Amino acid sequence: MQNLRIGLVPIVRPLFRGSRLGLEPTARQALEALGPKLGFELAYAAEPVADTAQAEAAARAAQAAKLDLLLVQHVTFATGDAFLPLLELPIPVGLWALPEVWDSGPLPQNAVCGLNLGVSLAQKPTKWFYGSVEDAWFQTRLELTLQALRGVKVLREGRVLWLGGHAPGFFAFGALPETGLTVEKAELSELWEALAAVSEAELEARVAEFRELSEYPLEQLRESFRLELALEQLARPYDGVALREWPEIPDRTGVMAYAAMARLADAGYTLAPEGDVMGLASQLALKAISGRPAILLDISHFSAKGIMLWHGGEAPLAWAAGPTRLVPHFNRHLPAVRDMALRAGPISGLRLLPGRKAVVHGGVLSGEKGYDGDSGYLTRPTWAAEPLTPRQFLASWLNHRLPHHLAVGMGAHEEALLEMCAWLGLEVLPARPQENRLVW
Q1: From 9, 20, 174, 265, which residue has the greatest number of CB atoms within 10 Å?
Q2: What angle do CA 98, 104, 109 make, to 5 degrees?
């Protein structure tokens, strides 16, 4: 889990008693102590701010600190001139009110009223927080925000390789993210060069390490291991690779890319099949939020069991419900794909779309295997955290005319994904579950 950089600027109005009770240093120390638990560091903390000049100076310092989140702490009530320069910063901002130190007699802080004033003046997405650092509500809201911001960070600052373009005829996969993610393009000729550069010593070492069950003898997997080594060399400088893995790779090498992609996923690499860059970006956000590998899947069957999600066999072992094995590709009968059931449990999904739009979904995998490759049944689906029937989910996906890859991550993280979309200014599409009429 990557540590995020948080800044803290306490806001006070000297007329209020709460400005003289030493509340802000206590809160700062508690926030610093919480950092290791939630995966952040307090990278900037200002002295209490009481007027516009101080707020402008704190804003300059906060921006220079390269923060992922700035917490503007309402120690007491303050008018907008004391914090508007902070709200206008081009970084995510949270407004946080400390609780009152007593609840009768003279009003000590009026901090929550200051928070109310602050959110009413915000002109961009701004998260509110309330309570002491030790309060469960404060920590729950902050942890959710940190998860969301990990997704924001990779989508704004990440760097990926688009190797070979999209698969033939898959024109929807030609769209690129609009979040700031850097996409570098390369031809498949770079892969051929990397394949030629793989040494026999490297290849022998990779063969010797192999332990997975396989329908193929090791000799028939050598070219798959060679492809794995070449892809690893190309992928190393990037956060992920969108790969055009057919038809050229099997035509030229005699092997499918899926076993190589699966084994690289085991090692922590993120690869998207069929040159799906938007799918890759969605995988990276899911991985950043969940801390676990994310995969791309097709909707391949619909029945009373649910919606079968399937792909060609490139999922990592972390997704396996049980034993795995390498088997022939279902169509081309070439080595090799990883055959396995997808593990049971909650999942979350994201599909980034052109025009700064996104779909956020979720559900539960049953753990039952479907077709050869990596497969499982999606049950109890949700769409933007609202429950749907499997039929309504399928109708919504088709009615929105979405590309045919679902990016799926482990765990229930829809709330973090929805917050991530808010920080990025992405429109989250609602469900369109009309089952019978034409929707266009």
Answers
A1: 9
A2: 30
